[in-house]
Structure formats: structure tokens, C-alpha cells
Amino acid sequence: MPEQVYSHQEIESKWSARWAADPKLFAPEDDSPKPKFYVLEMLPYPSGALHIGHVRNYSIGDALARYKWMRGFNVLHPMGWDAFGLPAENAAIKNNRHPSEWTHSNIEQMKRQHRRMGFSYDWNREVSTCEPEYYKWNQWFFIRMFEKGLAYRKQALLNWCNECATVLANEQVVDGCCWRHEDIPVEQKELTQWFIKITAYAEELLRDIGNLQGGWPDRVLAMQTNWIGRSEGAEIDFTLETGEKVRVFTTRVDTIYGATCVILAPEHDIVKLYATGEIAAAVKAMIDKRATQGPGDVEKEGIFTGLYAINPFNAERVPVWVANFVLTGYGTGAIMAVPAHDERDFEFCTKYGIPIVPVIRPADGALPDAVREAFGDYGVVENSGQWSGIASAEARKQMAAHAKANGFGESAITFRIKDWGISRQRYWGTPIPMVHCAVCGVVAVPDEQLPVLLPPDPVLKGTGQSPLAADESFVNVPCPKCSAPARRECDTMDTFVDSSWYFYRYCDAHNNEAPFDPKKIAYWFPIDQYIGGVEHAILHLIYSRFWTKMMRDIGLIANDEPAARLFTQGMVIKDGAKMSKNKGNVVSADDMMDEYGADTGRLFGLFAAPPERDLDWTASGAEGAYRFIGRVYRFVTRSIDRLDTPGAPTDADRKVLRKLHQTIHKITNDFESRWHFNTSIAAFMELVNEIYANEAQLTGATLREVLEKVVLLLAPFTPYVCEEMWELMGRPGPVLKQPWPEYNAELAKEDGAEVIIQVNGKLRGKLTVPFGTSKEELERLAMADEKARPFIEGKAVVKVIVVLDKLVNVVVKG
RNA sequence: GCCCGGGUGGCGAAACCGGCAGACGCAACGGACUUAAAAUCCGUUUCCGCGAAAGUGGAGUGCGGGUUCAAGUCCCGCCCCGGGCACCA
Length: 814
Description:
By secondary structure, this protein is an alpha+beta fold.
């Protein structure tokens, strides 16, 4: 066969069709004796077009999946669609199409692109979250949580995005703006909504971060730790002169003798009870201002309520204020202000002339006469009755215990994380399976009536009213308990519910009796490797962890965490900016595949940067990857006829085989440790350069040996062209079921050790010696070395450092 | 302010355990092939000196110190860039 020109269209369309025709090709085996490996990439939202960011994400997972198959694992590698959500509904309003139609046509488009990319998914397990077979189980889980008190309704101030016309969870607010609309400030609205009690798991979510260390990126774990935000402190009751108690939360109860006022959040119950006239008006103004204010520094403002409270530790009477910087949703919504030891309290009390009383001194200093700035560190407690002279840390414990013993407080822990508000006033989501009955109250839809189907013909306006409420035939329903006329809940669920457990469904995607068969979960879980963007570090990834723990506690599964290992890949950058529609720098997967092909797209994406780092997409870089694939392909095709030509082994054979085994070692290591495929591919390029340099001298047997291994090593990165070359070499496929090339350390070994000669740490010469040459001999050779000698002669040799097979460093003086 | 990353040629990067800084690729330049071009193959390219050249000397991994025979790598103190959290009591 003469040398062939690499034509990606021909090769990729040929194998894409063949792979699609074999539904078992990428399916895991039942009852397999092989060890299992579950590799998962985050499922996409079906926007309609795959772009380079997706391609990068899936190329990483696909390389791993193919490698694991070749290493003899039974691999589960599924794909699905996060198919509910706002874009479908907004597109529907704009184009007057049904969200379902829009979504399904997008899925079809993207699935075609996926197939074209040749990713090794088991499409038999495809999950689409907008199908009743899937969202039925969202409802089922919701009812289980309702029964356990983990799903509940309450009135609360909620984040509202006017553009989305719906409520947002705290996790969906970024810099005070909507996560989908970075320039739309989120407003606060008081609404009655459904919440999921993720806070019941706050302690465990935090504790188990310890078990994820090593398997999950530190960055993600740090972000989750921050988000959960545990603070240890105490709650203390200050008694008002009117008799009510105001409970404050503090992490520094040791400073309580320095408390000079109590400050309430504007929304606090006591304020509602006692604020009248001018004060009430000022408080309302504060609430309104805060509701519309964006993020950033806000001037502290407050007003005296006219009330006084008694500090239970020293019986001192302190004024009660209301201030805009005290948050209603954190701690108890009330604080004791200790201006001498808290920067914020200092700022506030200075502004309003409230006294400042220092009670903590630095361990090696004295109490200041006049406080010029807050001293917030731990120190020694002073002027604090029986605790004077005790260190802060110890005083905290003792004073909390004292409060408890005397019935006016106790040690307490608060979390920053809040319950997950899941009600959405939109159509395209899972209906919340609840009924409101005038007699029975809120009643769950019985399991046998699930799923509660979305009505097929919604009236969509995007006005902020739940579209389901306009559909009388949906709304009106008899109460499941008493059969009296009742009304259905009309909100739908946050789509993050859908993505919290989809990866369990892949294990048993067509189960009609249960969300999944626990036996299948026991086999596949935890996910061995999860791969996705870091933007989900606290959204999807914290919800998923919660959902797993919840499912464990209702007895469905045994694992505590969904994924043993997580990998977060970097963003794709083009022309200095993150690829996004707004910036107009998106490269579509289709355009890329037309021009360069799927293999090139994958190879460049993996070669241009280590996968965790941001990747610069450049056309010239892609050209380079394309040229390289062509270089391999041309060599293989022009060598086909020589593969079985007999001949005596040559020096070139040995050199190329050595390079081959060094490359096997390198690539295998990269797969097994840090996934720096950029260096795997660089090593592979070096191998190909070596083969080119020795082409004429290679014998047939070596050519066959080396080229077959070349194809196998490259297959996880560029599967199409490798499948084609494998076939051309007369080998039966598929490549991903071939064993991974085995490393032979003997063949990889160099002829001799290259030892560098340094004088005072500077490189002065090189030696090639047999491995294991003795210290004395190396020292002798170094001293005699022609290049090194001029730097040694005439100087006193202080000492000589020898590292066997590696280096000699002669230290001289003078 | 606190918590994570990161800073190396014209560019993307490599150097994994402290041991030859810049592998591999892009771009640029030169050569071969060609009537010519494209494609392909081969070569050069951190900076500053000296040299016609082969070579050869010095400097160099954000900045300042330190440890060490030896530092991009370890330690101390800074600067800059990216990300997360943030009146969280």
C-alpha cells in the first residue's frame, strides 16, 4: 500500500457509523469477572450545540474510559441530558414553541454531535431528566423527604431574579446577582416556598470533606468548607426590662463583659413587637434599602429602640439597637456588640457614641486606656469577674458552661449554609407533588398516583406567576385524604434536584418500579471518577452529596458519598476570554469537526495544557495536532507492506524499541497518576520523531511491533484514526478491547548512564559510563575530564559529591 | 480581610523525589523537493558577550533574603494575576 493522505472526514464517518450500529460496543458487561470502573462526566444542558468546552470535558473522560477498558476493567461510561430549565421555557415564549419540542430537538442535535465525536458512551442508559419516567422519582424522593420532615414549607425572604421571573437558591446568587444573569441584581421577596433541609446534614457534609481529601481537588473542598461555614460559639439570653428574652449568638462569649449594647436585625420579632412610629418607619426603610441594595460596602446604620436589656453575666443594663449590618438569617438575628474587640461593632459604636469597654488584653500586654481600634485576637480576659486572668480560649468554654448551668444560655454551633429553596414559579420543571386541602392542610400525592404529569398545553408568559396555576384542569383535584375539592401545588422544582441523583439512574435507567435497584448501585458506586467544571463546586456538588446521604438514610444505598474522585477541568479560553455566547467567541464542535475532525479536536485539547488548567484554543494549535495525526497516519500506511519483511535486527530497531518502552512507561504513569496528557502526548511525539529518524533501518518485525503499540497508545486520545490503522494492519478490533501495551523495563534501559560533571554546582562536562560505575571511578573520571579540568586546576578541592549514575560535583576554593 | 490556585522564551508549556532550565508543540527563519506554490522532510531559534565557524564565557524561572555541594523546586518576607467566601458576630 502506498502512503495515504490523512482524510479525517472519510475515516471518522466510516467508524462513527460502525460504532453506532453496535449498541453493545460501549456497554458494560453483566456479571463480569473484571473489576468495575465508573467514569462520569457532568451531564450537559441541551442548549442545542456542543462547543469546545464540552469537547474538552468529554475528551478527558473518554480517554480515561478507553484506557480503563484496555486495562481490563468493566467500564460504565454513560451520558444524559439535564433537560429541564429556563432556557427552554424562554425560547418557547419567544418562538411560540413548546419547551418539550425545543428541548427534544436540541437533544437530537447534540446527540448527533456526540456520536460524531465518537465518545464511548453506553447510549442504552441515556437519561433525560424531563421525561416522566425520570421526574416521577424526583417526586417520589420529595415525598420521602416530606415524610421525614426534610422537605417543608415556610415563609421566608427569598432571592428573586426579575429576568428569570422566579426564586433562586442561595447557591444560585453570585456577587448579589443571578447566576444566569450576571448584571441583574437579585431582589429579596417574602414568599411561602418549599425548602429542603440540607442544614440537617451540614455537620456531616462538613465532616466527610475529610474523607474526600486526596480524591477531590483541595480547591473544591475549601469552597465547600467555606460555604457550609461552621462557627462554634454560644447563645446567651439578654433579658429585656419588658420581660422578653433576646437571645444573641457570639463566637466570643469571653468578651461579654465588654458588651455595651444589643443589636437586632431589622426583621427581628422584638422589633416587630415594640417598634412604633418613627422607629418603625426607620426600620422599614432599612429593610427596603437592604432588599434593593447590591453587594459591596454598605454604610452601617442603626437606631435606638428605646429598650434596655440586662447582661446576664454582669447584670449591666445596655441599650437595644436595630442595625442594618445584623443579618436575620444567621445565628439568632441578634448580637451583643463588643466594640473593643470587634471591628464592625467598633465602627458602629464609634459612629453612635456608644461606650467602648476593653476586657481582653494581649498575652504580653496591658489593657489600653483608650481604645483606638478593635483588638480582635485571643488574649487574656480582664475586668470580667471570676474569669479575670484566664486565657480567651479557656474562658469561652467556662463561660458557656456557666450560662448553661444558670439557664441563660449554652454553647451553640451555627452554619452559614441555609436550607435549599426549591420552589420555582416556572413551567419546565418537575411538578411538586403536593395538594393543598382546606381541611387536611398540605397533603402528599400518594405514590401510586405518581408521576404528577406536567400539563401538556401551558400558557407561558414569564411574568413570575406559576404557569401551572392557570391550568384549571391541573389545579383542581380532590384531596387524597378526604376527597374534598383541593388545589395542587403549582410551583415546580429547581432543576438542581434533577442533577442531584441522575448518576444513580444510569445504573438502572429503565426501572419502572423504583428509582433504581439497590444491588446495581452497590456494584457501581461510588463513582470512580467524576469529571466536570469547577463552576459546580458548591451548587451541584454539594446538593449531590446531600442527596446521597439522604438516600442512604432512607435505606436505599450504602455509600456515604457519590464520587470517590473528582476532577475539575479548566475553562476553554479564546482570544483572551472565556468562551461564551456573549463574547461571540464560541467555537462549535460541528465547525471544529468539519475543519479538523474529532480526533484533532480531542488531541489538541489534551495536548495544549494540563487538563486542570485553562486552555487556549488556537486554530494554529489545532493545525499542529492535525499535522501530527497525519504524520503518524502516513508513516503507518506506507509501512503496511513492510510489516512482515524478514531481516536481522538492527541498531535502529533497538533504539526505537527503547524509546517505545520509555513512552509506554510515561503514558501509563500519566494515566495512573496526574492525567497530564499534555506530557503523554509530548512523549508520544518524541517517539514518532525517533521512528522517523530511523525509518530506513527498521526491520519488518520491529515495525509491526512498534506501530501496533503506537496505535494502542494513541487510541484513548484519537480513537477514530487508530481504529482505522489497526484495521489496515490487519488486526481485528475494536481497539478499546485490546490489552494495553506492557512496559518492559529491560528494553527501556539506556546503554549507559549519562553523568554530568559540575564544578561548584555549574555544569562543566558530561560522561557516559556503564550503570553502577563506582564513586571512586566517577570522581577520577570527573577530575580528568578535559572540559572540567580548567575550572579545577590550580584550586583547592574542598570536597566531591557523587550521585551514582547521575552527577559529580567538585567543590573548589580559591 | 480570610481560604485556594498561579507567575518559567515571541506564544501554549515541560522539568513528577532539590541534581543538565526551556522537552513537546505553535509562530518565525533557513535548507531540501518543486517550473512555481501548497503539502512534505530536515535544520535553527532564552537573553547578552567573544568568534568567520565549530565553539566558548556570562546572566536568567515575579521581587528581596535564607538553607544547601547544588534551588524553578525547600524556608522566611513581599509584589502581581485568577478563583472562592465576606458586615456570618
